[in-house]
């Protein structure tokens, strides 16, 4: 019974110590990639990951200009 409270405490500390993410452009790319992946033989997760990566790269590229 002590395993559950200790694992919850460890998970809370792990999440609290994580740095903030910089997701510039990632959400829109993930949504569009997920929808496109869903329509190409149910690869929504792969489409979301790819869309996030490409959109994040494009946002960084336009911010550098």
UniProtKB/TrEMBL annotation:
UniProt keyword Signal present: yes
Signal sequence extent: 1-23
UniProtKB keywords: Signal
Name used for this protein in its record: 17 kDa surface antigen
Organismal lineage: Bacteria, Pseudomonadati, Pseudomonadota, Alphaproteobacteria, Sphingomonadales
């Amino acid at each position: 019974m002590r395993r559950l409270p200790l694992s919850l405490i460890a998970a809370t500390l792990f999440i609290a110590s994580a740095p903030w993410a910089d997701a510039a452009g990632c959400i829109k790319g993930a949504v569009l990639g997920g929808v496109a992946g869903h329509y190409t033989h149910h690869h929504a997760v792969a489409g979301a990951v790819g869309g996030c990566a490409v959109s994040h790269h494009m946002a960084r590229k336009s911010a550098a200009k």
